[in-house]
Amino acid sequence: MSKRKASKPTSPLLTQEALLNRMTYRIRQSLDLMDILSATVAEMRSFLQTDRVKVYRFAPDGTGEVIAESIYKNHLPSLLGLHFPAADIPPHARELFIKAGVRTIVDVASEQMTLNYLENPKTTADLTVQEVRDTAIADILQRPVDPCHVEYLTNMGVQSTLVVPILNRQKLWGLLISHHAQPKPFSPGDLEVAQLVANQVSIAISQSTLLSQAESKAQREILLNQIATQLHVSWQVSATLPKVLEQTVAAVGASGGRLYLPLSEPTPSVNLYTCGTQPSVDLETMGLWQQMKPAWEIWTQQKQTVKADLTCMGEATTLSLKGQPTIHPVFTLTDLYQEPLLAGVTDAFQDTPIRSLLLMPLGYGEDYLGVLSLFRDEIETDILWAGRFDPDERNDRVRQSFEEWREIKQGQVNPWTEDDIELIQALGLHLSMAVMQSQLYQREKQLNTELEARVRQRTAALTQANQQLECEIVERQHTEAELLRQNRRVKLLVDMTQKIRQSLQIEEVLQTTVKEIQTILEADRVIIYQFDTNGTGTVVTEAVMPDFPAILGQTIADPCFDHQYREIYRNGRVAAIANVAQADIKPCYRDLLQQFDVQANLVVPILQRSALWGLLIVHQCQSGREWTSGEIDLLRQLADQVGIALGQAQLLEREVHQRQELERSNAELEQFAYVASHDLQEPLRMVASYTKLLAQLYQGRLDAEADKFINYAVDGAERMQTLLNDLLLYSRVDRKGKAFRLTDSNAALDSAIANLQMIIQETDARITSNNLPSVMADETQLVQLFQNLMSNAIKYRSQQPPVIDVGARLENGEWWFWVKDNGIGIAPKHKERIFIIFQRLHTRQKYPGTGIGLAICKKIVERHRGRIWVESEFGQGATFYFTIPDSGGLCR
User: What is the residue-averaged pLDDT of the chain?
Assistant: First the structure.
């Protein structure tokens, strides 16, 4: 037998590999992005042997800045720290960078690119953004360089460039750019290395971004913890609030702030805290601040984005809420002087440098507590441009110089960021809670003072005051007890949800549900009532106190519960009766409840996929009971969980039933195939014998039509015998299979080749194999498997003599065997069909057979807990694969 030899892969260039290894090592060792970028440009310039390599980063407005640079012996002037206008790399060019990946200009003087193959096409500057997206990448790369870009590079002193996009989260973050003062071609290897280095830089950017976000979040959490500690360390927050306001102003880079806290109880008053730059008037009397209270009230009712109606100078305008409204409402104005209708507000800021405003109403629950106002001054921007920048499009022409030009702008806005808003929202929650706690404390303190005064002034009413105090204590105890019960109800709901998800035993789920509800609600009886198809129902689960009768298993026919009530309960109705004797219910329903000693009743529907399955019912039998909203919500949620459990159980039952039916059907089908093929053998042999005898005795003695009919009969009988033999063999794979034992696959292959020796010699077939393993298998069936696959390979041969290769390899704990041929092949659409019994791809006249051979192979492989499939293209041969679990056997 011949053996295959695998070829060795070619190693990459050592210089490229060394560069990539160094870049990967620096990224893993350093968390500082600028260190990584500085090392990147130095390494790339050394590798490409060019005069300058730089990293160009895009700003959100499309402008860019050179943030890292490496220059060889001052051959080109430094551009580090210089900004470039957005028009230098317009939108269609940025789209081209994302789509093309790498762009190189080899010779600026000749205006040629190495990837340009078209004659006189449009230049890249003629393309719109939509054309870039719609044009094939090969067509884009074959366009000549735009003359304006040639002039731009020439003025910069550059004769060749290599530009590679740097992506971050599928967006264009920046560019890795190589400049050379002389024409210089770049090899495909250079381009590949440049792209790989850009990919490593993208990874470093992602890591740096995540690190910055984590550090920012950690610093924010530290600040929040510090402020929260200061706010909650004492009931008296008035002494703490000025410091907290200063910390808040500093945290978001504001220039000033105001904390306005109007009090209505116990006595009307106003607390105003200020910090930093302030306007010339009291803002809280103006319309904008007056609208914060109604804005808070709308937000607490709707929990959604609201708009504050502002009335200024007789005009009306709106200010939209920003940030995450479900956390805390925040209103922002980036530029006070850009809203014409806020003229009445801006007058208060004319004598101040304040330019931006942030307002956040404070409240707790439905109580409005006040408003936090933060200010930001206008700022001065100082930008170093590469050459004098004129934003007027009428003067749009290529810059002649790239010398440093400083642009200073005064009176610019400093907008509020999402991080600022998120921090303010978090601080607002702590401020609101602290202020609310302080007000509650002050109210309680004032009440205690008044109580003491009444006690001193009205000694005659001492008994009444003591009784009132006792009532308050009892009410507090009731509140604490209710809170305890509520916590227990929440825990019960969580526990029940977990149990339902962990168990598919519906009886266990239902029994646990009623027991836990009886315990948590201290109820006398809890039942689950399931509706029957005839309109009645049965109590399927019950938990009842010993003093009251059990009704488990009883069928209850409620004459009052008609189809109308079923529909009402299906739509989610909950029935709560506090006193059965006094309730406004039908007499028949009252009689039914009193039959089971029910004094108070709570009923919640159980829905299974929108259908009314039954009812979850709680009975109080000793006395009446007022059902609380918490108890009703708990029962409704538990009923929903029971409905989910019922759906899961139904799906499981259906799956088990389908699996059992499938197993029974397969067994019956296999038994039928065996009986049919076995019992039909004897009569078929008789038919075949007599038709052959008839052919021998009367061949040529009758007319030609009679001879033809006799030949038809003989051929049909022989084909029927072959079909029954194959069918019998198919049915015996499972029924007559031998026990698995350690089997040498080489010996099984040799036996299969011996069985096919005659057809191998007739077709001049050549069979090769490598060293096959020993596996746990039925040796007879393994021989049959090899024989069927090789027989098919010979049958469906091409014009060339058959060449068959048999081999195996170990993959993930199982042996992958293959039988590869050079035959006619199989179309991909038939790869599954060929393994189905009696399925043929060719006529019987062209390729004889019954269409059972591959079906037998599949059944043998599945009996050995394996898989079988084919990989082939029509006209290119086929490779059949099958797997057998590794038994730890050794190759011979």
Answer: 78
pLDDT tens per residue across span 283-315: 777 767 777 777 777 766 665 444 444 333 223
Beta pairing class for 600-608 and 611-620: antiparallel
Single-letter amino acid code for the residue at 216: S
Top-confidence range, 283-292, 300-309, 682-691, 751-760: 751-760
Six token digits for residue 494: 């969580």
Angstrom distance (rounded) from CA 238 to CA 435: 9
Could you list the beta-strand ranges (E) of 663-773.
741-744, 766-769
Amino acid letter, 412: Q
Mean pLDDT of 643-650: 81
- The three state secondary structure string of 831-870 is CCHHHCCCCCCCCCCCCCCCCCHHHHHHHHHHHCCCCEEE
Q: Are 606 and 664 in contact (CB under 8 A)?
A: no
Alpha-carbon distances, residue 329 vs 122, 209, 253, 308, 325 (angstroms):
53, 28, 20, 11, 5
Does residue 417 contact residue 213 with C-beta atoms inside 8 Å? no
Distance of CA 366 to the CA centre of its chain: 36
| 3-class secondary structure per residue, 531-553 | ECCCCCEEEEEEEECCCCCCCCC
Structure tokens at 447: 């009440």
Task: Tell me the C-alpha distance between 206 and 211, whole Å.
Answer: 9
CB 314 within 8 A of CB 239: no
Token pair of 861 as six digits:
């492989």
- 260-286 confidence digits (pLDDT tens): 888 755 556 668 899 998 887 787 777
Residue type, 381: T
DSSP 104-134: EESBTTTTB-TT--SSS---GGG--HHHHHH
